[in-house]
Input
Amino acid sequence: MIEILKFSEVTKDEIFSRVAEKIDVSDIVRDIIENVKQNGDKAVLEYCKKFDKANLSSLEVTAEEIDEAVTLVEPKFLKILETAAENIREFHSRQVREGFKIEKDGIVTGQKITPIEKVGLYVPGGTAAYPSTVLMDSIPAKIAGVKEMCIVTPPNKDGKINPVILAAAKIAGVDRIFKVGGAQAVAALSYGTESIPKVDKIVGPGNAFVAEAKRQVFGMVAIDMIAGPSEILVIADSKSNPRHVAADLLSQAEHDRNASAVLITDSEEFARLVSESLEEQIPQLERAEIARESIDKNGKIIVTNDILGAIEVSNEIAPEHLELQLDDPFKYLDAVKNAGSIFMGRFCPEALGDYYAGPNHTLPTSGTAKFSSPLSVDDFTKKTQFTYYTEDALKEVADDVAFFAKKEGLTAHAKSAVIRFEDEK
Output
């Protein structure tokens, strides 16, 4: 059963602690990466046979396979995918930045925005197929101008990719798709193989092996983040429906045994009602065993004196998903400092953000919302500065630059600033 804690009567450790299983897979992942680095496609195909039970003759998904997959997806779901894609495009198109230029007295400085050329997206496969990940990660990349967007995703034992993944990839405008998962997929994207191109950045969620592989290849390529278990924090008052709040908490608890579901409220009676509703709803879930463990390990209901106090606690937790189930949520928006994505009001369940509304669902976890942001178009661009000085403009400041350089003991720096004018002296 979920814990109910009164904020004024417990320690901060009890409020903010998280319990998570940590499995050290670093050595296994290191060996996989080295094997793929050295042996390319041969190693990848061997891992597909070992881990996915798939005997593949080639790794890349063909255009014919994609077209066939689209026919296998029910028309209603295709339409929903297309609508979700439109919402995601509309939201992320507002994130596009332009460079700038500052000109004055013979000096030009500025910044230009350039898309990353090649990006790899890891999409979990098997029994858990996430077309939402395809849309959320690929569409911002294409809006940014990424030239080549590649998906890696594990095949089933017949060597097929889940049709909904391929349909979403086509809708999102993905360029290439490869039948490979796990740490070997991350390694292939990082170093390149005969079939799979080396990319500049890898994004997307995965299991412990994928997360560790991303950690180990960082520096060879860029990565989006090392994502932790899913999190939801709901701030609600007694006017909210306890069944709705319980359902929203369970929407993240069913993800992972290590997921975190937290309610903060100013009503002890409401806390009790939500706890009772959780006990009623958990047995009805298909993933009841996972949700049960998540709620028992990391579920909490925290009772504060008022809603502003609840927001203070939430800011310290810095949740991935934050719901403000309040009459006037916009009244409290500025008070929220740390959260990945905020869902406003009593009719905005977090599930809207996972699939449909438009804002991205790739979010900072484990308290990193204190300094990190959701995936956006910015993640698929790089910024380059430029500087231009005329001769007169440099002459005006050369002595100052040299003086500064000498203060740091860098005489070659100083010389380079003044050498162009030595003949005049």
User: Anything to note?
Assistant: The CA atoms of residues 182 and 210 lie 5 Å apart. The chain has a mean pLDDT of 95.
